[in-house]
């Protein structure tokens, strides 16, 4: 599922994961940008780039003024205005499983 991964040090330090292009139709690229903190706060940003625009969503756990500490920014824009309160597991592996399952279903929907 992963084509490449790299630590990006510009702006906020994060892990960028480029997803394998064979999972997507021609002309679509997808990636994750992931930040995880020692206090268990995190940000998982998923983004697809299509010829006609960008589709994205985001899973977050961090203090903020717009929602509870745990929240989800739904597709297609991942806007702050549309953010929904959410509860995320404490174990990072469980959070990763939620995110990967969401993306798996998204990929299936793209091929339908």
From TrEMBL:
UniProt superkingdom = Archaea
Q: Which Pfam families match?
A: TumE (PF20126)
Kindly provide the name given to this protein in its UniProt entry. Answer: Uncharacterized protein
Q: What organism is recorded for this protein?
A: Natronocalculus amylovorans
Lineage of the organism: Archaea, Methanobacteriati, Methanobacteriota, Stenosarchaea group, Halobacteria
């Amino acid at each position: 599922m992963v084509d490449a991964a790299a630590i990006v040090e510009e702006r906020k330090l994060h892990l960028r994961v480029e997803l394998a292009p064979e999972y997507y139709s021609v002309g679509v690229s997808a990636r994750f940008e992931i930040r995880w903190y020692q206090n268990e706060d995190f940000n998982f940003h998923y983004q697809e780039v299509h010829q006609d625009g960008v589709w994205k969503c985001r899973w977050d756990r961090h203090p903020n003024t717009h929602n509870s500490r745990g929240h989800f920014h739904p597709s297609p824009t991942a806007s702050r205005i549309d953010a929904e309160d959410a509860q995320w597991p404490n174990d990072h592996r469980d959070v990763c499983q939620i995110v990967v399952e969401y993306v798996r279903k998204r990929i299936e929907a793209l091929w339908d």
